[in-house]
Amino acid sequence: MNEQHVHLTGIGSYLPERVLSNAELETMVDTSDSWIQERTGIRERHIVAADQMTSDMAVEAARIALNDAGIGIDDIDALIVSTTTPDMVFPATATVVQAKLGGKDFPAWDIQAVCSGFVYGLAMADGMMRAGMFRRVLLIGAEAMSRIVNWQDRSTCVLFGDGAGAVVLEAKEKEGGVLGSVLHADGAYRDLLKAHHPHPGASPDRVVDFSLDAAGVAAVEMKGNEVFRVAVTKLGQVVGEILEHCQVDKGAVDWLVPHQANIRIIQATAKKLGMSMERVSTTVREHGNTSSASIPLALDELYRTGKLAAGQLILLEAFAGGFAWGANLLRWSK
Ligand code: UT7
Question: Scanning 78, 193, 217, 304, which has the fewest C-beta atoms within 10 Å of its C-beta?
Fold first, then answer.
């Protein structure tokens, strides 16, 4: 087999209809629109409907991505869903998505690297595809973060949103596509950003009411400013590492597509790369932090608005609970 390169040939995303504004949050917790915008850059976020699951959002994004690639679900060899908010403990949400899309007889599994899940998933798919295991992979980041947020904790509930993004990956002999990936994790930091298992079987003292109106449930817990400090440092390092790994000069990068947690973290990474904010996809204002959905959502935003051109270099990076962080470099080839 000749050397294979993994190209993004389809992309799609989905945001639930309901928009939760900072103004509405002001009526729920002791916060203000100005605090949220100044500290995070977030103005609003989308919230999944009561009768929607993570798999439903994943399916919507996947349909658009498949259509964009001009293929059907039967053309797919493997399906990976990155999610922190699976429909159930098991089966994997990926199998639910497979069934809802009418797919059969190909492997489907979930991965969990929280907000870095898409970067991890892309690295994993790229490796498996280069090794010849699969020719076409559907990779989805889908999250219903609103279901694991404590809506009485102002320090976290203002940050998150729901959504899904999907890409179709195809192995080809043609050069380009995913140029490389760098992944890291350090579990010594695991207590700074976490959510206890919502399922009573795993944690009998914590039974979580998943509704938006639920009071006092234990879910996402974060020591925000400590996470912030480490995130800025580690992201600054990992963007340098991925460029070195791929032998690319920072001046050659056309677009930065970062995980969307906080505009100030994004600005710090852009500064490290010497990139102006015009070359950075920022959706945090409208989406909030959608965990592993945020990068495909932000990439799709660039694509849909016609900003991407074949041959451009795109740097993806993310930082997550764990901590787990990483980066991928792509040469856009659509
Ligand atoms: O996606 C995974 C990675 N996640 C991240 O990267 C998130 C990283 N952290 C952050 O983005 C920021 O740390 C936050 C946005 C979470 C917080 O911003 P900060 O500038 O680090 O604020 P802080 O936590 O140091 O809090 C400053 C003050 C505190 O009040 P005092 O103690 O100074 O009186 C907080 O109680 O702001 C208060 N505060 C709020 N005030 C109004 C915290 N949350 C709110 C709020 N509204 N929602």
Answer: 304
